[in-house]
Hints:
Elements: E1 19-27, H1 40-54, E2 58-62, H2 66-75, E3 80-82, E4 98-100, E5 105-114, E6 133-141, E7 147-154, H3 160-180, E8 184-189, H4 197-203, E9 207-208, E10 234-238, E11 243-249, E12 254-255, E13 258-259, E14 266-272
Helix pairs in contact: 1-2, 3-4
Amino acid sequence: MRWSVPIGLFMLATLGMAQDLTILTYNIRYDNAGDSLDRWDRRKEALAKEVLTHKPQLFGLQEALAHQLSYLDGQWPGYSRYGVGRDDGVAKGEFSPVFFDPSAFTLLSGRTLWLSETPDRPSKGWDAACERIATAVSLRNKTTGDSLLVVNTHWDHIGTEARAHSAELLLKEIDPALRRGDHVILMGDLNATPNDSATKLLAEHLTDACPKERNDQGTFNGFELESKAPKRIDYVWLSPVNWSVLEYEVPHPKVMGRQVSDHYPVVVRVRKEP
Length: 274
C-alpha cells in the first residue's frame, strides 16, 4: 500500500461550485516477457507520457505489477496513489490503483474489496479464473471541501457469474452514497461489453460516460496493429446526479509503430454542477 504517488469510484458532496475534472482509466497490460515486441520495457516510456498528455486529476490503472508502478511513480511525481496487489493484499500480483493529484485532493481513506464471497481478504470468487479486486478511495477537494469516493476495478475475463456478482457487490458498496445523492464514479476494465448482463445491471443505477452514438467504439486492441478494437470493455460510469460529460475520448497511442498497450485508454472530462 502506498499513500504518496495516484482512480474508480467517487463520492462528491456539493458546496455550490461547478468543477471540471479529467478522468482516465487504462489497462496497461502486465509485464509479460512473452509479449516480444510489445513487452513492457519497449512501451513503458510512451505509456507514461500518454497519461501525462491528458493531465488527469484522477485516474485508474489495471494489470499494474509492483515494479511497473515503481517505474511509473518516478515518471509521475505529481501524483499520489492508493492500492495493493490482489494476490496477497500487499505487493504480490496485479494492482488496480487509484491515482490522484495531491495538490487538489486529500486522501481521507481507502480500502480494497476482493470481488468474491469474502471481499475483505484475498480470495477468488464464484467462477472467476483468478483473484479480482476493486480499489475504493475517499478524497476531499482542497479547494471546495467536497468529498469524493473513487472506485477502480478489474473484472474477471472468464467467469460470467463472477462478473454478475461483481456488479452486485460494487452496487451494494456504493448504494449508501447513491441514496444520499453523493457523486460516484466507477471506472475500470470490466471484461464485459455494453450488452453483457452485468454491464446492464450497472446501467440501471449509473450513467455510462460514453455517448450513445459511440457505444460501438472499442477499447481492447489485443496488440493488433490495425485492430478496430471491436470490443468496448473499459468504462467510466457516473452517478446520475449533477454530472455533465464535456468530452469522451478513446486515444490510440503508438510507440515504434506498435500499440502502447493491448487496451486503449479512456479519457473523460466532466463537470460537476452545483
